[in-house]
Design a protein that fits this description.
Layout (H helix, E strand, L loop, with lengths): L1 H20 L1 H8 L21 H14 L4 E5 L2 E5 L3 H8 L25 H11 L5 H22 L4 E6 H16 L10 H22 L7 H4 L3 H27 L14 H6 L6 H9 L8 H32 L1 H14 L14 H13 L6 E3 L5 E3 L2 E3 L4 E4 L1 H4 L3 H4 L13 H6 L18 H18 E4 L9 E2 L5 E2 L4 E6 L5
Parallel strand pairs: 2-7
Antiparallel strand pairs: 1-2, 3-11, 4-7, 5-6, 8-11, 9-10
């Protein structure tokens, strides 16, 4: 009895001191509206018993009902949901809001650009930025054209009245393109089953990691390691790492002298003259890893590759699959995109300069990503008090920015926000909206390093496919439900049909 009393008194004293140490946080939290919070567990009950599909619908309904910003508690952690573009801009551009919350550690990429602590990220991002310079991106175009042309030929076997899931093919395609351009290793020699297994395994692994976020009882690492989910994660991580190890082995085989190999040394003399200083991501990573002061150990080196591979693979595959699906849903717009392609580049490779002329395609891509976003939300943790318009966010709070809600907010997109309309991205309409109303790859200093690469690679692939095939689908946009994950998933497969275009060259 004495022991129990002692434990109880100790717990009460600890809790009081804990509250006192966070007095400022609680003061600022009280100024932000939010749902009812229970003592100790906060708002956790709002997520209990809901699968990813149900959770998206529930959170969307909740966010539309409550004002922004909105406060919630995940146990002892203060969550602040912000979806007003002007406030989002303040958060993402603040030098004191570059840190990501502890939940990003669940993805086991805390040494790569995706989840690295702010100090490490800042140093590595500065060193790696040049690997996506305009000169480097332009140097990728010939290879992207070659891979897109090869993919288009493979689609020839799919021409029929039967539907097929294009995502499986695109997951393999984007893995090959990201590795052959940014990582300097051509994985097209690998068997299809190996490449498809990598993509499928990675998606399942990171989906499980994301679901751990809203299962608070799995947050403590020592408890998580006692579960079957941890054992499955370890098995999947081992398989996941095999691909980046292959990349490393290929690169090492190409540089017996121990010096980084310049991927342009085997190119045509004209290419070497045009891109004399262009270094892709892997070349730059190899270069900076030789300097101990940059703090890139062997595990960190591999994590940078893992981050680039999965980030470029799954996001691009999902965005392209979604776009081919919506092209099939809206044949009038598909024809408009096709006619534009035929005016800009009716045959042969797509040039770097051609890409800026594809305005209808860009509008269509953006509208697809608006309604079917690649990422549903991102999160940041202020290290100091951050002012977002008239609201002060305390250090230690977790700021959630829900792209999913922002992209369908009628206050930003009008009464028809739920309707598919690429004209939302006409220049005059964009000029009327806040620039942070649509930031699919994030924005500010910690945006996606491969954002411009993503747009270029997607446009080139779409040019080759739409130029050769007419796309159809039986799926309607209102039938699609989104599932919250690291990369947003659909409740349906990407089932499309292909028909050869008679005018294709």
């Amino acid at each position: 009895m004495i022991v129990l009393v002692f434990i109880g008194v100790f717990a009460i004293v600890y809790y009081i001191n804990f509250r006192r140490s966070r007095k400022r946080l609680y003061e600022l939290a009280e100024r932000i509206p939010g749902p009812f919070d229970y003592p100790l567990i906060g708002s956790i009950l709002l997520t209990l018993g809901k699968d990813p599909l149900e959770l998206v619908a529930h959170l969307m309904e909740l966010m539309h009902q409550l004002p922004s910003p909105m406060r919630a508690w995940l146990g002892p952690f203060l969550l602040v949901v912000i979806d007003r573009p002007e406030m989002v801009q303040d958060i993402l551009n603040s030098p004191d809001c570059l840190q990501k919350p502890f939940m990003y550690d669940f993805f086991r990429l805390n040494k790569g650009l995706f989840g690295a602590p702010a100090a490490m990220w800042r140093r590595h991002r500065k060193l790696l930025n040049t690997s996506f310079s305009p000169a480097v991106l332009k140097s990728f175009v010939p290879k992207l054209n070659a891979k897109a042309e090869q993919f288009t030929r493979e689609l020839d076997d799919k021409v029929s009245s039967e539907c097929f899931d294009v995502h499986t093919l695109l997951a393999r395609y984007t893995l090959v393109t990201i590795s052959s351009t940014t990582l300097g290793a051509d994985l097209s020699v690998e068997r299809r089953e190996v490449l498809e297994e990598y993509s499928s395994n990675a998606i399942q692994m990171f989906t499980a990691s994301f679901e751990r976020i809203y299962k608070a009882w799995l947050h403590p690492e020592f408890l998580y390691q006692m579960t079957s989910a941890f054992k499955e994660e370890q098995a999947r991580m081992k398989l996941f790492k095999q691909m980046s190890r292959k990349i490393i082995n290929i690169r090492q085989a190409l540089q017996p002298s121990g010096k980084p190999k310049d991927d342009l040394q085997d190119s045509d003399p004209e290419d070497r003259q045009e891109f004399p200083k262009a270094k892709n991501f892997i070349e730059r990573l190899e270069e900076i890893a030789t300097d101990p002061s940059n703090s890139i150990d062997e595990d960190g080196f591999q994590q940078h590759i893992d981050t680039m591979m999965f980030g470029g693979n799954d996001t691009s595959a999902q965005a392209l699959s979604n776009t081919l699906l919506t092209l099939g849903m809206y044949p009038d717009w598909q024809e408009k995109v096709y006619q534009e392609i035929m005016e800009v580049a009716p045959s042969g490779p797509i040039s770097y300069e051609d890409l800026t002329k594809l305005t209808n395609m860009e509008m269509f891509l953006k509208e697809t990503i608006r309604l079917l976003p690649i990422t549903g939300l991102i999160a940041r943790v202020p290290t100091k008090e951050v002012q977002a318009q008239d609201v002060t966010i305390p250090p230690g709070a977790i700021v959630l920015i829900p792209f999913l809600k922002m992209h369908r907010d009628k206050a930003l997109w009008g009464p028809d926000a739920e309707q598919f309309n690429p004209d939302n991205f006409l220049p005059e309409r964009c000029a009327q909206r806040h620039p942070y109303a649509f930031i699919p790859f994030s924005q500010g200093p910690r945006n996606c390093i491969g954002m411009k690469y993503g747009w270029i690679s997607m446009k080139i692939l779409l040019c080759h496919v739409v130029r050769q095939y007419r796309i159809a689908t039986d799926i309607k946009l209102n039938e699609i439900k989104l599932s919250l994950s690291l990369v947003m998933k659909l409740n349906k497969k990407h089932l499309i049909r292909l028909e050869r275009r008679c005018a294709a060259s």
